[in-house]
Amino acid sequence: MAHLKCIECDGTYGVNEIIYKCGNCGGILEVVTDLEEVHKKISVNKWSDTSLSVWRYADFLPVNDRVNIVTLNEGGTGLHRCKRLAEKIGLKKLFIKFEGENPTGSFKDRGMTVGISKARELGVSTVICASTGNTSASLAAYAAKAGMQCIVLVPAGKIGVGKLAQAMAHGARLVQVKGNFDDSLDMVFKICERNNQIYLLNSINPFRIEGQKTIAFEVTEQLGISPDCMVMPVGNAGNISAAWKGFNEFEAVGLIKTKPRMIGIQAEGASPIVNAYRKKQRTIEPILSPETVATAIRIGNPVSWMKALNSIYDSKGHAETVSDQEILDAQRLLAQTEGIFAEPASATPIASLRNLLDQGEIEKTDSVVCVATGHGLKDADVITRIFGKPIEIEADIDAIEKSLNLLVKYDKWLEDPVSI
Ligand code: F0G
Predict the structure, then answer these.
(1) Per-residue pLDDT tens digits for 364-393
(2) With a threshold of 0.85, does the pTM exceed it?
(3) DSSP string for residues in 51-116
(4) Which end of the chain is more exposed for a tag (fewer CB within 10 A), N or C?
(5) For ligand 1, which residues put their CB under 6 angstroms from it?
(6) By alpha-carbon position, which residue is closest to atom 19 of ligand 1?
(7) Distance, CA 135 to ligand 1 centroid (Å)?
């Protein structure tokens, strides 16, 4: 039977207690899976009968009764071999795990299917989160599917329009808070303190992390082995630790022998984890006014910082920053060499690769998996801002041919599209 454990003082709690932080020391909690039990179950259950998805790994997940599962068919996302992009960067084996293929367009759905299923098991009727956009879109969709009320708090004017539209379309009660994500999350904690019937589904909720750990299982099965490096964006810092937990659990039940180095990437203007890593510290100094074009990770005081730092240190990994310009260049490069349209935060791993190679943090021959966490359509404003308005021309064949400048080679045009 699984239980909850404080990552700081090892205090333990039952999986059916509604609790987000340790009652003794305030540390954050994780689900401890009974891996011996899992080992027994997986040797009997046949995975090959189930397609690649979060619930393929139900034996590893802490939902007691399968009737409570709320699913929109999450997980099973593509692991794309990126030869053209790899060549441009100077790598041999580069893969993108494209989480934009999830039902609401981001990796959050992996965590939300488990989080909402647990909420149903606990008999909860109202759920809440603070969000930079994707969590709110995902929670709103799963709450709708489960017939629960959903409340979301987001930083005013600082989330992608697509994400805002998703939360609204799914019927969430949406509040734009004048402040940043960290202020919104603070308000959510306070609301839950005052109203204990409202269930919090940010990634501090350890059941979210349980769903998100399945990305490690999928990558391992898709590759047939662990990659050498997993490169992931870090915002509120839950996802990198979720993936690391997944690799550890697969190792513990004997499904893999090696684990990847976990490499966390943050934007220059929102990099408390990288700052701590550079100083070899085990604690962070929050950034009061985080700023970056990658609004999904515009976070100065990540709640799961300790889990993220542990994952990076324990895996002998690394943490690095990228500039806003590097993020936008990488987003465009990925879209135009591989046909994968990811949002800016999701392009941060790609943006970091040349630098990581130069520093010797990754080797040319390493197998590298970059997680593209969310779909580019969620934040289409960024693209139209950068590319400007497409040209408008009369329906006249000569004029259109002239403007398309059909003699210019495609590669040349890509380098300088606006000049024609
Ligand atoms: N990439 C995207 C697209 C995200 O939306 C987020 C987080 C991250 C990366 C970082 O993941 O927080 O687990 O380190 N988005 C949250 C939200 C904060 O509210 O949607 P993390």
Answers:
(1) 999 999 999 999 999 999 998 888 888 899
(2) yes
(3) -SSGGGGGGGS--S-GGG---S------EEE-HHHHHHHT-SEEEEEEGGGSTTSBTHHHHHHHHH
(4) N
(5) 106, 108, 131-135, 203, 233-239, 296-297, 343, 345-346, 373-374
(6) 131
(7) 7
